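I hope you will forgive my troubling you with a question about protein structure. I am sending you one protein, given as its amino acid sequence and as whole-number tokens for its backbone shapes. Thank you for your consideration; the sequence and its tokens are set out here:
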Amino acid sequence: MPDEKPDVIDSEPKKGILPVLLLLIGAIAGYVVGSLTSGPDVSEGGQTSYACALAEKVRAGHQSEDDWGTINEDPAYNEMMAIRSLLGASMSAGNGEDERFADLDWSVVSEGGVEAWGTLLDEIIEAC
């Protein structure tokens, strides 16, 4: 029986409605989830929360004076300025509206060295 043909598996993909339905369901679910979630919290409370998280991040990476790089290489310097701004302390009106941060000495951000910055970060984290 050398003329017998071997069983051939049908390698043609089956075209059906299931892949189309799954794609459609995924698209609808993505749209619904996307429309239900809100954008970032840019309120004063949201900015304070972000400043607190940023202060913890900077402090975690800068435990001693030796951990600070140069101004041009270490993003922590910009992050310190951002923390100050997010808490409203860079305004000429004072230290922002949140009383927890009213007694902090923000002058060390522009005038003090990294040792003073570490102390300020600790005070911010404690106030948070």
